[in-house]
TrEMBL record:
Gene3D superfamilies: 3.10.20.600, 6.10.250.1450, NADH-ubiquinone oxidoreductase 51kDa subunit, NADH-ubiquinone oxidoreductase 51kDa subunit, iron-sulphur binding domain. Its cofactor is [4Fe-4S] cluster; FMN. GO terms for molecular function: 4 iron, 4 sulfur cluster binding; FMN binding; metal ion binding; NAD binding; NADH dehydrogenase (ubiquinone) activity; quinone binding. Residues 320-365 form the NADH-ubiquinone oxidoreductase 51kDa subunit iron-sulphur binding domain. It comes from freshwater metagenome. InterPro entries: NADH-UbQ_OxRdtase_51kDa_CS, NADH-UbQ_OxRdtase_suF, Nuo51_FMN-bd, Nuo51_FMN-bd_sf, Nuop51_4Fe4S-bd, Nuop51_4Fe4S-bd_sf, Soluble_ligand-bd. NCBIfam families: nuoF_fam, PRK13596.1. PROSITE patterns: COMPLEX1_51K_1 (PS00644), COMPLEX1_51K_2 (PS00645). Belongs to the complex I 51 kDa subunit family. Keywords: 4Fe-4S, Flavoprotein, FMN, Iron, Iron-sulfur, Metal-binding, NAD, Quinone, Translocase. It catalyses: a quinone + NADH + 5 H(+)(in) = a quinol + NAD(+) + 4 H(+)(out). SMART domains: NADH_4Fe-4S. This is Unannotated protein.
Length: 426
């Protein structure tokens, strides 16, 4: 059985884990010393060799992304850290930043050295005020200790709280002071990103994984995980479980194993459906308990690893209600730039509301799938695609439950016994 393997989360249980003192006590800022003594290209090669893949959802190889930054171009280069974290169910960057903000700052110093950047911007979701305060304090402490300001500056930018601003190009527009809407690519950020300069955009967890790789080497990182998904990662377990929270394990662990290690589904209940990577990834059911939770394993089973946000729903949950709630979120967060997403998500909500209330007909299910087909792959960015995932997958696995709403003239679930879906919003 795969075991939990705390690397990023190794000292989270210590009361002062977020302080500079505690970080240094555990060897903090030794990795950046080591990296700064290395040739920047050697740092990029090390990260490439480690097999680290972006933890923001798409799993793009981090070292390869850094390698795309043109060299000798006499332009400023930028590192942008994506700390927007707004996907329903995704809650790993927030605890990471609360427990250990210095590991991100150290990762920024190393990444800036590798891509020859002098400035790193951390774009953080504005609603998480406690995290903003914590990261601000850590940055101030790093400046006071002379860790920052000697070649690398870090700026914390507070977003207004829009899911779309997690999409990397919308994030760049927002950072520049414009309304956050995705940009047409190419050019990609590596060529023309922030202020039209070569820019790397990486997730908090991706950059925070770098110091340990520099300290322990690529082989150490390669030794954990599966063939193409290396290292450890933070799985966020939420919903109808005994112990929700972060569980750091090598990539490839299964949900069955995580549930066994964490206390399982709440007593007296059984798993009905779950998301492997947040609400924009197709649902799984109890048939998928043994799917390896790595990029390839989840894709082969018809979903996506995404942000590894494991939202667990037991048999008391109405799947139609849960999917409606998620769809309302995507409709609300659609930035309006493209028609398929702006109009499509609005119509998805109208039809789902009717279906949930038992007002539609079976033909509405076909209409819903047709709408999804017109959004998927036709939207300007992946927000639209993500909005269709819970709908198409829930109809695939729970068509009978949709029909039951129609024959019952409303939701067949007992509203008292059912805990339904709370806390879905950003
Ligand atoms: C609608 C939308 C929201 C996103 N939100 C986030 C987010 O909050 N955090 C994040 O790191 N990536 C988010 N992404 C993915 C980013 O566009 C980008 O792929 C990621 O920041 C790259 O970092 P990585 O290579 O380290 O994973 C989002 C993408 C989309 C389409």
């Amino acid at each position: 059985m795969t075991k939990l393997a705390p690397v990023l989360s190794a000292h989270w249980d210590e009361k002062d884990s977020f302080t500079l003192e505690a970080y240094k006590r555990h060897g903090g800022y030794k990795a950046s010393e080591k990296a700064l003594a290395m040739d920047p290209d050697a740092v990029i090669q090390l990260v490439k060799d480690s097999g680290l893949r972006g933890r923001g959802g798409a799993g793009f190889p981090t070292g390869m992304k850094w390698g795309f930054i043109p060299q000798g171009d006499n332009k400023d280069h930028y590192l942008v850290v994506n700390a927007d974290e707004s996907e329903p169910g995704t809650c790993k960057d927030t605890p990471l930043l609360m427990a250990n903000p210095h590991v991100l700052i150290e990762g920024c110093i190393i990444a800036c050295h590798a891509i020859r950047a002098k400035h790193a911007f951390i774009y953080i979701r504005g609603e998480v005020t406690h995290v903003v305060r914590r990261v601000n304090q850590a940055i101030a402490d790093a400046y006071a200790a002379g860790i920052l300001g000697n070649g690398v500056d870090v700026v914390l930018h507070i977003g207004a709280g829009a899911y779309i601003c997690g999409e990397e190009t919308a994030l760049l527009d927002s950072l520049e002071g414009f309304r956050g809407q995705p940009r047409l690519r190419p050019p990609f950020p590596a060529i023309a990103g922030l202020y039209a300069r070569p820019t790397v955009v990486n997730n908090v967890e991706s950059i925070s994984s770098v110091p340990a790789i520099v300290m322990n080497g690529a082989e150490w990182y390669q030794s954990m995980g599966t063939e193409k998904s290396k290292g450890t990662t933070l799985y966020s377990l939420s919903g109808h479980v005994v112990n929700p929270g972060q569980f750091e394990a090598p990539l490839g662990i299964t949900l069955r194993e995580i549930l066994e290690l964490s206390g399982g589904v709440r007593k007296g209940h059984k798993l009905k459906f779950w998301t492997p990577g947040g609400s924009s990834t197709p649902l799984f059911t109890d048939e998928h308990l043994d799917v390896p939770l790595d990029y390839e394993g989840v894709a082969a089973a018809g979903s996506m690893l995404g942000t590894k946000a494991l939202q667990i729903f037991d048999e008391t949950t109405c799947v139609v209600r849960a999917v409606l709630r998620w769809t309302e979120f995507y409709k609300h967060e659609s930035c309006g730039k493209c028609t398929p997403c702006r109009e499509g998500t609005w119509w998805l909500v109208q039809i789902l509301r009717d279906l949930e209330a038992g007002k539609g007909t079976e033909a509405d299910l076909a209409k819903l799938l047709d709408l999804c087909d017109n959004i998927m792959g036709r939207s300007f960015c992946a927000l639209g695609d993500g909005a269709t995932s819970p709908i198409t997958s829930s109809i695939k696995y729970f068509r009978d439950e949709y029909i039951a709403h129609l024959t019952n003239g409303g939701c067949p679930f007992d509203p008292v016994a059912s805990t339904l879906f709370v806390g879905a919003g950003a």
